[in-house]
Amino acid sequence: MTKILVVFGATGQQGGSVIDAVLNDSELSKEYSLRAITRDIKRPSAQSLQSRGVEVVEADVDDPDSLSSALAQAHTVFIVTISIYDENLKARELRQTKDVADAAVAAGAQYLIYSSCVAAERLWGIPVTAFDSKADSEAYIRTLPIKSAFFSPGMFMQNYLTNQRPQPIPGKEGDEITYAIANFISPDAPIPLIDTVKDSGKYVGTILANPDRYAGNTFFAATAFYSYREAAEIITRITGKRTVYLQIPLEQWISYLPPGYDKAMSEMMRWVESPGYFGPQSNEEVKWTVQQVKDKLSTFEEFVESYATDMF
User: Looking at domain 3-155+195-222+282-292, which CATH architecture does it have?
Assistant: First the structure.
């Protein structure tokens, strides 16, 4: 009899990648049957999962009453929460995670895998709200009478298709267009990157294949480190569109952000610059994690090649 793996965020980047990894792995697909959790079972993305043989259940992390049936007979649960950068970020994510984790324990689940972040304030005394919100939830999960492991993704390569998309720099008519990636941190600050769509499931799949071995561990998930300067050079080389990194004043960078994002995002980027995305031991943490994964991880070069036409 297969174990039921319940995947929250099943139609998102991380949850969808976990589902893909299990379906595409001959061993994992024999060991686990998939239950995808979505807030709207009528969405095309949810119906697509059903067409692939995945059980799809409607539930909402903001509706505790919907969770008990969603988690019935679950063996393993993958939990990911969406960060909304407002004054309720920490309280909301902790509440959502506690409700899901508590419901999983009550349902008799035996294993939790949580998408987490480093505990910046607790471990190093530097508040990073966007990280600490998930770290607090991880700390709570670690107190529960259930085995658990943690997946801590680096910065998403997909950001280069959205909020870090290269933007054209105004110039004279007829001049070659130059594109810019802008931020206030050093051009050489190393940033761990993950193709969250293709690779999240490879890390989580490694845990699913060896749950006892990795119980209590955190996977610091990134293929490698790329500075903004290196990213711009890679984009230029592969796409043929001249791209540069512009280090701009903090105040100017903040002016480009959506309302409410300034504090959380500036905290995060300062932290990325120093002591590092995963803390002072970022290099060692990523190196160990990469060694655990048997599948090939996507490089930033490969990502750019795949999405070159979508980047501009």
Answer: 3-Layer(aba) Sandwich (3.40)
